[in-house]
TrEMBL record:
GO terms for cellular component: apoplast. This is Dirigent protein. Coiled coil: none annotated. Its main location: secreted. The keyword Cytoplasm does not apply.
Length: 195
């Protein structure tokens, strides 16, 4: 059922179209690559400071390791610092040091043995939280982890969900290291500014 528009109607549509497109351009609604917004448009008036405290549980041996070495260089095995090895982790984050304690999230990412002169890792990981109001929110850590000092500090470079626009730092302290299995528990204190 084809339908032709009556003359007044098509003139109306023509004028409407011209009007519509001109307002589109004039009203700055045309596709734009970038524009300034008031911070309040994303609810960014006030900053919050959060302190998160949890334990990072890493199991390297056994049937269900949470850390797996996925790559290394030919020279890694003869390097005193393990230079060139890359490990992928999916480590549970728990409220208390015991591995049976409540899980509040996972640390997922990689670390690379990135120094030839000392034990120093490049850490690239996300803390993916699953607890309460933080469920589904993440913090991204990118930093250098020199394993020997008692407290290592690494930057938090961003976040998602409740941690949008996050910036801050994480302090990591080895809680237990089993020198037979290589299993490690690391205490994390994370301080972040976010909105
Ligand atoms: C690494 O080792 C393998 C096997 O031993 C050898 O085939 C390969 O050429 C070596 N690569 C380099 C870059 O030395
Ligand atoms: C938890 O830790 C205990 C002792 O510290 C150990 O025997 C057990 O295998 C660990 N469980 C897991 C799932 O890692
Ligand atoms: C977290 O969110 C997921 C997906 O929305 C849901 O399945 C899960 O039950 C939640 N966990 C907690 C502890 O609220
Ligand atoms: C492992 O740790 C125990 C005590 O914590 C120590 O006596 C032992 O020498 C260590 N072994 C190695 C290989 O470092």
């Amino acid at each position: 059922m084809a339908k032709t528009l009556s003359k007044p109607t098509s003139i109306f549509f023509m004028l409407f179209t011209i009007f519509f497109f001109s307002t589109y351009v004039i009203a700055d609604e045309a596709p734009v690559f970038s524009k300034n917004l008031p911070p309040s448009s994303l609810g960014l008036e006030q900053k919050k400071l959060s302190h998160l405290h949890f334990y990072f549980q890493e199991i390297v041996r056994g049937p269900k390791p949470t850390a797996v070495r996925v790559a290394q260089a030919n020279t890694t095995n003869t390097s005193p610092t393990g230079f060139g090895a890359v490990v992928v982790i999916d480590d549970p984050l728990t409220l208390l040091p015991e591995n049976t304690s409540k899980v509040v999230g996972q640390a997922q990412g990689t670390y690379t043995f990135a120094s030839q002169s000392e034990s120093a890792l490049l850490m690239v990981m996300n803390f993916a939280f699953t607890e309460g109001e933080y469920n589904g929110s993440t913090l991204s850590l990118l930093g250098r982890n020199t394993v020997s000092p008692s407290v290592r500090e690494m930057p938090i470079v961003g976040g998602s969900g409740v941690f949008r626009f996050a910036r801050g730092y994480a302090q990591a302290k080895t809680y237990t290291f089993d020198n037979k299995t290589g299993d490690t528990v690391v205490e994390y204190n994370v301080y972040v500014l976010h909105h």
